[in-house]
Amino acid sequence: MLPSFYNTWKHVFKLDPERPIDDATLDAICTSGTDAILVGGSSGVTFDNTVDLMSRIRRYEVPCAFELSDPACGVPGFDGYFIPTVLNTKKSEWLIGYHVDALRDFGHLLPWDMIVGEAYLVLNPDSTVATLTGADAGISNGDAIAFSQVADRLWNMPILYVEYSGTFGDMELLKSIKANLKQAHLFYGGGIDGPERAAQAALAADTVVVGNIIYENLDAALSTVGAVNLSIKERDHVL
Ligand code: 1GP
Fold first, then answer.
1. What does pTM read for this prediction?
2. Domain 11-238: which topology?
């Protein structure tokens, strides 16, 4: 059976090991009521800065997972690991090449019961991740849905991550993508800067990921936790 440690996550804060975060901010994030802390970044992630951040987060009860995109940063001790692949990249190494290299060398060491594949659909052409991975982010909505269905229906990927990192995405497209998924769990991240956008994203995504605003406006970041949970309750007519 595939690992399912992320199944119940509605809201996640994403922390970048390369970006400094003081103890008070980290305390507020880890005790915010978020469902998990996701550690990851597009550049500058090292074994040392990952260990450092993980050990600080580990003082709290909140679950903590790592997006592992470089085998040199394979830090043990997380509750789970996501291995990303970029669906709409033009560079095949980001789709499968780096994965083959990593498994050839480290496959026998990996804790497979804690690892899930994560299919990224990168939709902000100006994001660091789009530049780094050569993602064809300016695709049509029809293509975005088709990429999602390849991941979901053909490849049975457990997670589809719609990534608008740095800008708020097209929520109608996100809803269309969600409506066409058969089994994949849908992560959404990008441009959530407060409760309104968090609530909108929660109407479509299974898990809402909040990143950059943590470092820019902590109060706004913290307000997204309640907003996501309220939005989901309203969506499900529990109120
Ligand atoms: C980045 O999807 C996350 O990988 C969150 O995006 O930093 O824009 O919130 P933001």
1. 0.97
2. TIM Barrel (3.20.20)
